[in-house]
Amino acid sequence: MSKKGLQVALAFGKSLPDFANYEEAKDYYFSFRERHLELLRQISQRQATFVMDFSPESLKSLEKLYFALHESNLFEDLKTTREEFESCMSVYYGETVVRNCSKASWVVVPFGFLPNKFELMVRSTNCGEGIGRFPDHYRSPGNKGHDSLWRRFHQRFWSRELRTDPPEAVSASAVWAQYDPAQAEALGHYSLFEGPRELAGKDRYDWSKEEARLYLQWLESSLEGRVRGLLNYFGESNDGPPERTLSRVGQRVAQVVRAPRFVTINGPDNFSESYQLTEEGLSLAIDLNLLIAKFLLDEFSPAVHWKMPKKSRNVADYHMPVLSGFFGPEFQALDAINSWVFSVLAGRKSPVIWLETYERLKSTAPKGPSL
Fold this sequence. Notes:
Blueprint: H1 3-15, H2 22-44, H3 58-72, H4 82-100, E1 105-110, E2 118-123, E3 128-130, H5 148-161, H6 172-176, H7 181-187, H8 209-233, H9 242-256, E4 263-265, E5 275-277, H10 279-300, E6 305-307, E7 322-324, H11 340-345, H12 353-363
Antiparallel strand pairs: 1-2, 2-3, 4-5, 6-7
């Protein structure tokens, strides 16, 4: 995580209430949810724009009501404030997700960066989103149609709901049982992913276009070395098909990744949010993705290639290169904060997840030569 990203995360964490334990947090947040749903029910009865039926389409009318109230400064007419209405919108969005997506549910999870902090989330199989408030929603970029909640619902949850992949039966205890402290201790220090020297100490949010290009060039030139370092660290070699290498490396990661060298634990073992990766853990998480990227580039380059996407400076992955060219989502290989390492640590995914990610991306890669 960048320095600015960490500052944003810590600022958010400090805004959360302090709790003595999980049960106290759960009681607080579930009461918060019910209180704001009831408030929105009362508001819905005072106007005709929004019908509170928890359908995905109702997210559009709710957002249109929000903008109408904001532009005319009429929140008080409905006996609420803009801030309170933004909390109602967030909770209603979460409840709409849960009611329409069979894999989604409400959860209260530890906040990974600070002790005694918890947050309310809606979580599905491969996606989780914090719920509480959409602060200053009227300032959200790229929302001229006033339908961002509906698009968010489809992109983050509904598209996954439609997938027909069979559910994966994973035993958390079986995943945790693979941890071998002696092996972890014997391996020693893991090489840090530090970027080019020219950008050392400079937050990527402050990079110029030239510096962003420099970082992309550095990544492309460093890929082979990072992958070789990862394989050497685990005593593995790239002398077979990618599937076999990824399977072996995944097993080796499960044997060592719970070591203090890679992670600190603050909360229940079965919550990925309980885990905070150290600098070595973040570097390992990135290199596992780079291993996948190398195999895909070897087979599908130049159709599959690195690029620096053009994004708003307000997003978390600003100036973060992605692997592009797929008939589907781009691969955010440097996004260690959302790495599968957290799911393996929590016992929600088995160590074959990196192999499965490679196979999924491969299935959406171009099958013919690039034009």
